[in-house]
């Protein structure tokens, strides 16, 4: 049996790893597109704090311990994953703050991976993430920095919610580890752009730069580039790119290895890595197509929002700005399921549309796709993620 996985982002790499570990002849096709979401994504693993707890994302967070153990057995024991916790900034409005506390606490109680939820004061939050304002008077700037103070002045309660189970992850390192570990099990990686090859109505593989890679099953995990792969075969999965601009800052000489993720509840975020690096983001820009530029408006939005809650970043050095194209769907839900063949012998499996939750749900979504390709139980109800649910609106 041979399975070809198209797309070597986090979903495709995870699917290829699952298949190769299962002893299946596996080929991974990597087009190495500029703007691949995995390479730009911030890497926050905290699906319990948002307004909606997406089941695939929650399952994805819970999948990480097993995945990390498997990768370690395959010689990949450092993928940039660390459980650092998260600080959820509470609204100043007492009733809204109570709703957030109740929501997060209920989700944490239902999922042991979420860890402990507790309320901490502003001074404790500042101790854990020293760039935060000592008190929640966000919008003020030290040293005369008034960038965006009016537009991004947010009112937060003095107390902050701490969620111990949250983690951060380096998506680039994890993707590389998955591919390397899969190669240890016989994975073949082919560079180039694929298109589905069919004989009549049956998928027979993919063509990559003139070479036909025949397969029993194709897993389409090409992110925002999936329509170009699938539509010529007659499969419409309306995934479109949403541009995200994410800024990396350096705090030279500062040990940021264990700083928690900061979630202001505004759609922006802050997190850190071991190399004195602070990552702040992100824009959510629809209708940009594959325009890979860093824009003045994007930089202003991200930096203003970051310093509104963490004025200590005013002295940081700008290191780089990463741009990625999140694959999004019209209803905001992922697409994971079989679109051709029978459940026991699928010819085409699609795994896509994870949006901003790609690094949270991606490895598990890839594993689900691999299980579907093998005709096995996926481990989650894939009904809500049916790739063909958009067919009636075509």
UniProtKB/TrEMBL annotation:
Keywords: Flavoprotein, Oxidoreductase. GO terms for molecular function: oxidoreductase activity. The keyword Oxidoreductase applies. InterPro entries: FAD-dep_OxRdtase (IPR006076), FAD/NAD-bd_sf (IPR036188). Residues 2-372 form the FAD dependent oxidoreductase domain. GO terms for cellular component: cytoplasm. Gene3D superfamilies: D-Amino Acid Oxidase, subunit A, domain 2 (3.30.9.10), FAD/NAD(P)-binding domain (3.50.50.60). It comes from the Bacteria. Its cofactor is FAD. The keyword Transcription regulation does not apply. Belongs to the DadA oxidoreductase family. This is FAD-dependent oxidoreductase. It comes from Streptomyces reniochalinae.
